[in-house]
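Milestone M4 deliverable, item 7.
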Amino acid sequence: MAADIAFAVCGVSKTYGGRQALNHVTLSVAKGEMIGLIGPSGSGKSTLLRALTGLVRIDADAGTISAFDAPLQTHGRVIDKVQAVRARIGFIFQSFNLVGRLSLFSNVMVGALAKLPVWRGMLGLWPAEDKARAMQALARVGVADYAGQRANTLSGGQQQRGAIARTLVQGAEVILADEPVASLDPVAARKVMGALQELNRNDRLTVIVTLHHVEYAIRYCPRIVALKAGQIVYDGPAKGLDRKRLIDIYGPEIDDIMPEDPS
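Output delivered:
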């Protein structure tokens, strides 16, 4: 595999009971891309995103997933050293996944745990350079002023930007974000998407984000991959998502929720 490929998905399927969440999906993601994963609820977006980290095991009968030029899953078996791969991938959840009683700073420092002895992390004995990196990361996403505040007292948008900062402290090369703006108001959503876009453009981090908001996918993601019933039905530039293609993906009801000009 070429060294500039972050992920290669080949013929992957995933079945839950009698329902096929992914149906022979093939996808290649280059390093430094920002991709929006869209599609109706139940189309397989989140399943695919989690499969890229081995959090979801693909069906055993066929299919492979490679990450960073090495196998990750083959025929339903996740590699033994999957933790080393996950250390290079930052995962952002819709529910923020922060510890509410801890400060935002402490939550962000969790990103450095893999590089420290467990006892130091439990006691909060962080090296000075890691503390500095955490504050720099919080500043980059615009929430450094809230570093000492308990996470559960912050707005959803502030928490989500804290989650992005945590991936920076982790040293992630890839950010996978699963519906990161689904519960946010439009202003907070734009700030979160803008932060992801800035990291992609300036740091060349690979970003793959699942979105229900098609207009955000079109605005922030140069490449769009659309799934429907577990299959890829569109893979191309955002500007290629015209009304006809969107109706093919979502049905005619898409007209009720799409703005006249999503840009």
